[in-house]
Amino acid sequence: MSSIAVIGGGKIGEALIAGLLDGGVNPKDIHVTNRSVERGQYLREKFSVVPFVDNGPAVDGVDVVFICVKPKMVLKVAEEIAEIIDNNDATTVVSMAAGITNAALEEVLAAGAPVIRAMPNTPMLVGKGMTALAPGRFVDEEQLAKVTTLLQATGAVRVVEESDMDAVTAMSGSSPAYFFLMIEAMIDAGVNLGLSRDAAKDLSVNALYGAAAMLKETGEEPQQLRANVSSPGGATIAAIRAFEEAGLRAAVYDATQACARRSAELG
Ligand SMILES: NC(=O)c1ccc[n+]([C@@H]2O[C@H](COP(=O)([O-])OP(=O)(O)OC[C@H]3O[C@@H](n4cnc5c(N)ncnc54)[C@H](OP(=O)(O)O)[C@@H]3O)[C@@H](O)[C@H]2O)c1
């Protein structure tokens, strides 16, 4: 059984803890750090994990450290834990922060430290996350497999090249917000058609949920699934035509490119 330190028990840290517990990790094997004592107490009461305010003691002797603080704090945290990690070469450090490269972390940590850059997303909060992992130079297969298995308790996991991380941010890190925006628009559109807000939300959220489940469970291409419900001269193809005329595809290209570009700038 792995022992784990979660540095930064905020939104992503809490979602990760919930997933790890679902995956069968013993709460006593999970250390969590926050600078505020109250947040640590909240996490202890909710999950029975072990709270710390100092990062050094929290990482001492653990197998995997997940750094879940804001990007600008990551290298400072890495500096704080470098010496302790150095004394335990079995520890793998996983950064969940956008934009911080493996090379930057490797430089701060001891020579040869196994580092993995991860890009999660917030559906992790409900066990439906998508996390991409880019292993650093010193990570062996066993360490990557261990981290993959731990994160699979929070949703899907995919190993990618680190050079793809900005595109990953556009595809999965940030994309839940695109779908929330789409549903927001659908709800207003439903109200415009005379439905109550509640009915419009129920109908559109369940349609999105069902469409995603169909894509995952059937393995069919989206074009095929769309063609299946677009009868000749029918209502669905009339809606598709309106989307095409409004430039939906071009908007998707532009939005994802803007996201990837901004992700690179922030890095
Ligand atoms: N939220 C997302 O959608 C998302 C998606 C992909 C990736 N991420 C990445 O996940 C990371 C965390 O994001 P988040 O949304 O979870 O942020 P958050 O809710 O602000 O959580 C950060 C946590 O870190 C703690 N913290 C700050 N400095 C610390 C330190 N020096 N030592 C220990 N704990 C410290 C904070 O608590 P105290 O102030 O009490 O210390 C806070 O609970 C970010 O790097 C972000 O890029 C987030």
UniProtKB/TrEMBL annotation:
SUPFAM superfamilies referenced in this protein's UniProt entry, alphabetically: 6-phosphogluconate dehydrogenase C-terminal domain-like, NAD(P)-binding Rossmann-fold domains
EC number(s) per entry: 1.5.1.2
Compartment(s) where it occurs, according to its Swiss-Prot or TrEMBL record: Cytoplasm
Chain segments annotated as coiled-coil in the UniProt record: none
Chemical reaction(s) catalysed: L-proline + NADP(+) = (S)-1-pyrroline-5-carboxylate + NADPH + 2 H(+); L-proline + NAD(+) = (S)-1-pyrroline-5-carboxylate + NADH + 2 H(+)
Keywords, alphabetical: Amino-acid biosynthesis, Cytoplasm, NADP, Oxidoreductase, Proline biosynthesis
Keyword check for Cell membrane: no
Pfam family, one: P5CR_dimer
Lineage top rank: taxon: Bacteria
Span of domain Pyrroline-5-carboxylate reductase dimerisation: 162-266
Molecular function as annotated in GO: pyrroline-5-carboxylate reductase activity
InterPro entries documented for this protein: 6-PGluconate_DH-like_C_sf, NAD(P)-bd_dom_sf, P5C_Rdtase_cat_N, P5CR-like_CS, P5CR_dimer, Pyrroline-COOH_reductase
Pathway stated in the Swiss-Prot or TrEMBL entry: Amino-acid biosynthesis; L-proline biosynthesis; L-proline from L-glutamate 5-semialdehyde: step 1/1
Pyrroline-5-carboxylate reductase catalytic N-terminal domain mapped to chain residues: 4-99
Cytoplasm is among the record's keywords: yes
Name of the top EC class for this enzyme: oxidoreductase
Similarity field: Belongs to the pyrroline-5-carboxylate reductase family.
Reported function: Catalyzes the reduction of 1-pyrroline-5-carboxylate (PCA) to L-proline.
Record's protein name: Pyrroline-5-carboxylate reductase
Source species of the chain: Corynebacterium felinum
Lineage: Bacteria, Bacillati, Actinomycetota, Actinomycetes, Mycobacteriales
Gene that this sequence comes from: proC
